[in-house]
Amino acid sequence: MSRRSPIPTMPWAADNQWQPKWSSLFVICFSMALMGIGEGLLVLANLGSSPWTVFSQGIALQTGLSIGTVIGIVSVIVLLLWIPLKLRPGVGTILNIIIIAIFVDVAVDNIPVPDTLTMRIIFMVIGLIVFGISTTFYLSCQLGAGPRDGLMVGLCFKYHWKVGTVRTSIEVIVCVFGFLLGGTVGISTIIFALGVGWIIEATVILFRRYIKEDKTIEV
Protein backbone atom coordinates (compact mmCIF):
# COMPACT_ATOMS: atom_id res chain seq x y z
CA MET A 1 0.00 0.00 0.00
CA SER A 2 1.27 3.50 -0.77
CA ARG A 3 0.59 6.69 1.13
CA ARG A 4 1.52 10.35 0.96
CA SER A 5 4.67 11.50 2.71
CA PRO A 6 3.97 13.59 5.85
CA ILE A 7 6.37 16.25 4.51
CA PRO A 8 5.63 17.40 0.93
CA THR A 9 8.16 16.92 -1.87
CA MET A 10 9.19 20.46 -2.78
CA PRO A 11 11.09 21.60 -5.92
CA TRP A 12 14.33 21.90 -3.96
CA ALA A 13 14.11 18.41 -2.45
CA ALA A 14 17.15 16.18 -3.00
CA ASP A 15 16.79 12.81 -4.77
CA ASN A 16 19.28 11.22 -2.40
CA GLN A 17 19.94 12.32 1.19
CA TRP A 18 23.70 11.97 0.67
CA GLN A 19 23.73 13.78 -2.70
CA PRO A 20 22.24 17.26 -2.17
CA LYS A 21 21.43 19.61 -5.02
CA TRP A 22 22.68 23.17 -4.70
CA SER A 23 19.12 24.33 -4.07
CA SER A 24 18.47 21.75 -1.35
CA LEU A 25 21.83 22.49 0.29
CA PHE A 26 21.07 26.22 0.34
CA VAL A 27 17.54 25.76 1.73
CA ILE A 28 18.63 23.35 4.46
CA CYS A 29 21.58 25.48 5.60
CA PHE A 30 19.50 28.67 5.59
CA SER A 31 16.54 27.07 7.38
CA MET A 32 18.77 25.49 10.04
CA ALA A 33 20.45 28.84 10.61
CA LEU A 34 17.00 30.32 11.20
CA MET A 35 16.17 27.44 13.55
CA GLY A 36 19.25 28.28 15.58
CA ILE A 37 18.28 31.96 15.67
CA GLY A 38 14.73 31.01 16.69
CA GLU A 39 16.06 28.87 19.53
CA GLY A 40 18.38 31.74 20.49
CA LEU A 41 15.43 34.13 20.72
CA LEU A 42 13.69 31.70 23.06
CA VAL A 43 16.81 31.62 25.24
CA LEU A 44 17.03 35.44 25.26
CA ALA A 45 13.34 35.72 26.17
CA ASN A 46 14.15 33.82 29.40
CA LEU A 47 10.59 32.60 29.81
CA GLY A 48 11.46 28.89 30.02
CA SER A 49 13.56 26.41 28.05
CA SER A 50 12.31 24.38 25.10
CA PRO A 51 11.03 20.89 26.11
CA TRP A 52 14.12 18.96 24.97
CA THR A 53 16.36 21.42 26.84
CA VAL A 54 14.22 20.95 29.96
CA PHE A 55 14.67 17.20 29.55
CA SER A 56 18.45 17.56 29.22
CA GLN A 57 18.60 19.92 32.21
CA GLY A 58 16.70 17.41 34.35
CA ILE A 59 19.01 14.54 33.45
CA ALA A 60 22.07 16.73 33.99
CA LEU A 61 20.85 17.64 37.48
CA GLN A 62 20.28 14.00 38.36
CA THR A 63 23.55 12.67 36.95
CA GLY A 64 25.98 15.53 37.48
CA LEU A 65 26.87 15.56 33.78
CA SER A 66 26.99 18.80 31.78
CA ILE A 67 23.96 19.75 29.70
CA GLY A 68 26.07 19.52 26.53
CA THR A 69 27.11 15.97 27.37
CA VAL A 70 23.52 15.01 28.12
CA ILE A 71 22.28 16.52 24.85
CA GLY A 72 24.84 14.40 22.98
CA ILE A 73 23.83 11.22 24.82
CA VAL A 74 20.13 11.91 24.27
CA SER A 75 20.77 12.49 20.55
CA VAL A 76 22.48 9.10 20.27
CA ILE A 77 19.63 7.38 22.11
CA VAL A 78 17.04 9.05 19.89
CA LEU A 79 19.01 7.94 16.83
CA LEU A 80 18.84 4.35 18.13
CA LEU A 81 15.05 4.72 18.19
CA TRP A 82 15.27 5.24 14.42
CA ILE A 83 16.21 1.56 13.94
CA PRO A 84 12.73 0.02 14.41
CA LEU A 85 11.29 2.87 12.33
CA LYS A 86 13.70 1.96 9.48
CA LEU A 87 15.11 5.48 9.21
CA ARG A 88 18.54 6.37 7.87
CA PRO A 89 20.65 9.46 8.68
CA GLY A 90 21.72 11.81 5.92
CA VAL A 91 23.60 15.04 5.30
CA GLY A 92 20.83 16.90 7.10
CA THR A 93 21.32 14.83 10.25
CA ILE A 94 24.92 16.04 10.52
CA LEU A 95 24.16 19.63 9.50
CA ASN A 96 21.36 19.74 12.08
CA ILE A 97 23.81 19.20 14.92
CA ILE A 98 26.43 21.67 13.62
CA ILE A 99 24.53 24.62 12.13
CA ILE A 100 21.81 24.98 14.74
CA ALA A 101 24.33 24.99 17.58
CA ILE A 102 26.44 27.66 15.85
CA PHE A 103 23.52 30.01 15.20
CA VAL A 104 22.07 29.64 18.69
CA ASP A 105 25.37 31.09 19.93
CA VAL A 106 25.35 33.76 17.18
CA ALA A 107 21.88 34.89 18.24
CA VAL A 108 22.57 34.84 21.98
CA ASP A 109 25.91 36.65 21.61
CA ASN A 110 24.81 39.35 19.16
CA ILE A 111 21.13 40.13 19.75
CA PRO A 112 20.51 42.52 22.67
CA VAL A 113 18.74 40.94 25.64
CA PRO A 114 15.15 42.25 25.87
CA ASP A 115 14.73 44.49 28.91
CA THR A 116 10.92 44.54 29.18
CA LEU A 117 8.34 41.80 29.56
CA THR A 118 6.66 42.92 26.32
CA MET A 119 9.88 42.50 24.35
CA ARG A 120 10.55 39.14 25.98
CA ILE A 121 7.11 37.94 24.89
CA ILE A 122 7.76 39.24 21.36
CA PHE A 123 11.08 37.38 21.28
CA MET A 124 9.32 34.22 22.45
CA VAL A 125 6.57 34.41 19.81
CA ILE A 126 8.96 35.24 16.94
CA GLY A 127 11.37 32.52 18.05
CA LEU A 128 8.61 29.91 18.15
CA ILE A 129 7.22 30.83 14.72
CA VAL A 130 10.65 31.02 13.08
CA PHE A 131 11.68 27.68 14.59
CA GLY A 132 8.51 25.88 13.50
CA ILE A 133 8.44 27.18 9.91
CA SER A 134 12.17 26.63 9.43
CA THR A 135 11.84 23.05 10.70
CA THR A 136 9.37 22.30 7.90
CA PHE A 137 11.66 23.85 5.28
CA TYR A 138 14.68 21.80 6.33
CA LEU A 139 12.68 18.57 6.49
CA SER A 140 11.33 19.24 2.99
CA CYS A 141 14.89 19.12 1.62
CA GLN A 142 14.83 15.34 2.21
CA LEU A 143 18.48 15.25 3.22
CA GLY A 144 17.80 13.37 6.42
CA ALA A 145 16.28 14.75 9.59
CA GLY A 146 17.94 15.61 12.88
CA PRO A 147 17.56 13.00 15.62
CA ARG A 148 14.38 14.43 17.16
CA ASP A 149 12.68 15.47 13.92
CA GLY A 150 13.54 12.11 12.38
CA LEU A 151 11.73 10.40 15.23
CA MET A 152 8.69 12.59 14.53
CA VAL A 153 8.67 11.84 10.80
CA GLY A 154 9.29 8.11 11.39
CA LEU A 155 6.30 7.85 13.72
CA CYS A 156 4.15 9.70 11.15
CA PHE A 157 5.21 7.19 8.48
CA LYS A 158 4.67 4.12 10.63
CA TYR A 159 1.38 4.96 12.29
CA HIS A 160 -0.16 7.40 9.77
CA TRP A 161 -0.47 10.12 12.42
CA LYS A 162 -0.53 13.87 11.74
CA VAL A 163 2.73 15.80 12.12
CA GLY A 164 1.14 18.20 14.59
CA THR A 165 -0.17 15.39 16.80
CA VAL A 166 3.13 13.50 16.86
CA ARG A 167 5.36 16.53 17.44
CA THR A 168 3.13 17.92 20.19
CA SER A 169 2.96 14.53 21.93
CA ILE A 170 6.75 14.11 21.89
CA GLU A 171 7.34 17.65 23.17
CA VAL A 172 4.84 17.24 26.02
CA ILE A 173 6.23 13.84 27.08
CA VAL A 174 9.89 14.95 27.23
CA CYS A 175 8.85 18.18 28.93
CA VAL A 176 6.97 16.33 31.69
CA PHE A 177 9.87 13.93 32.28
CA GLY A 178 12.33 16.83 32.29
CA PHE A 179 10.24 18.76 34.81
CA LEU A 180 9.96 15.72 37.10
CA LEU A 181 13.76 15.41 36.95
CA GLY A 182 14.21 19.06 37.95
CA GLY A 183 14.43 20.88 34.60
CA THR A 184 13.33 24.54 34.33
CA VAL A 185 9.84 25.04 32.93
CA GLY A 186 8.19 28.36 32.03
CA ILE A 187 5.44 29.74 29.85
CA SER A 188 7.74 29.51 26.82
CA THR A 189 8.20 25.79 27.46
CA ILE A 190 4.47 25.15 27.51
CA ILE A 191 3.75 27.23 24.40
CA PHE A 192 6.64 25.56 22.55
CA ALA A 193 5.44 22.07 23.50
CA LEU A 194 1.83 22.74 22.50
CA GLY A 195 2.44 25.05 19.55
CA VAL A 196 5.49 24.12 17.47
CA GLY A 197 3.94 20.94 16.06
CA TRP A 198 0.94 22.84 14.76
CA ILE A 199 3.12 25.54 13.21
CA ILE A 200 4.87 22.73 11.32
CA GLU A 201 1.48 21.26 10.37
CA ALA A 202 0.24 24.64 9.09
CA THR A 203 3.41 25.09 7.02
CA VAL A 204 2.94 21.60 5.54
CA ILE A 205 -0.62 22.54 4.51
CA LEU A 206 0.67 25.70 2.79
CA PHE A 207 3.36 23.67 1.02
CA ARG A 208 0.77 21.26 -0.36
CA ARG A 209 -1.20 24.14 -1.88
CA TYR A 210 1.76 25.11 -4.05
CA ILE A 211 2.90 21.75 -5.40
CA LYS A 212 1.30 19.79 -8.22
CA GLU A 213 2.23 16.30 -7.12
CA ASP A 214 3.55 14.73 -3.99
CA LYS A 215 5.77 11.72 -3.52
CA THR A 216 4.23 8.56 -2.09
CA ILE A 217 5.88 5.83 -0.07
CA GLU A 218 5.22 2.12 0.27
CA VAL A 219 4.03 1.02 3.72
TrEMBL record:
Per the UniProt record, which residue ranges are transmembrane? 25-47, 59-83, 90-108, 120-139, 159-181, 187-207
Write down the superkingdom of origin.
Bacteria
A Pfam family it matches: DUF6198
Q: Please report the name of this protein according to its UniProt entry.
A: Membrane protein YczE
Keyword Transmembrane listed? The answer is: yes
Q: What is the lineage of its organism?
A: Bacteria, Pseudomonadati, Pseudomonadota, Gammaproteobacteria, Pasteurellales
Q: Which UniProt keywords apply?
A: Membrane, Transmembrane, Transmembrane helix
